[in-house]
Design brief:
By secondary structure, the chain is α+β, with helices and mostly antiparallel strands. The protein is built from six helices and nine strands. Keywords: Signal.
Length: 200
């Protein structure tokens, strides 16, 4: 009982921090960040001011990420987003995790998947992931040209790791981008993401 009481006290005191410590809701300003990409180049959100930006939390070793890349779903979504949409994949995996991959290995993986995000960014200390409240891989965000988060949630409505389901799912990110391009409010602006937990 003493051990249980101590754990409860620690949790109440905030010593047992949740996986994602913040939460960015649609309508809020997107937290600013600068991260290095897999080539060692500094990439900041600010440099894409005036453009629509998609953030994709990514971990190649997660079966839910595998689902969307093996099926070609994520690559198709990246291409169909268009040249006016910036696509930033972010990896917040802690270097001590067994899921951690080096920048070189991540770059090689991107090539193997024929994936073409605008940049693949490294967030090894998890600060950007926690600023956004990224919970899963994938966890998707859409930011409009004014720098406001307009979508936060799952990639689609087929909440499983089966590649064959990716193509027939209702894709929430595609729908959000369509709404943004049409100049209207995103109809489904937030929902619960699904996937592997981010390995902070």
């Amino acid at each position: 009982m003493r051990i249980i009481s101590a754990l409860l006290l620690a949790a109440t005191a905030g010593l047992l921090a949740p996986t994602a410590s913040a939460n960015v809701d649609p309508g809020q300003a997107a937290p600013a960040f600068t991260l290095k990409d897999v080539n060692g180049k500094d990439i900041s959100l600010a440099q894409f001011k005036g453009k629509t930006v998609v953030l994709e939390w990514n971990n190649p070793k997660c079966p839910f990420i595998v689902k969307h890349y093996v099926s070609g779903n994520m690559q198709d979504l990246q291409r169909s987003a268009g040249k006016d949409v910036v696509w930033l994949a972010i990896n917040s995996t802690n270097p001590k995790s067994s899921d951690f991959m080096s920048a070189a290995d991540l770059g090689k993986w991107l090539g193997e998947q024929k994936s073409q995000p605008t940049a693949y960014l490294l967030d090894p200390d998890g600060k950007v992931g926690q600023a956004y409240g990224a919970k899963t891989t994938p966890h998707m965000f859409v930011i409009n040209a004014q720098g406001t988060v307009v979508y936060d949630g799952a990639i689609d409505d087929k909440r499983n790791a089966r590649p064959e389901d990716a193509k027939t799912a209702n894709n929430f990110v595609r729908a959000a981008l369509t709404d943004v391009a049409a100049g209207r409010a995103v109809a489904n602006a937030t929902n619960q993401p699904y996937g592997c937990s981010v390995k902070y």
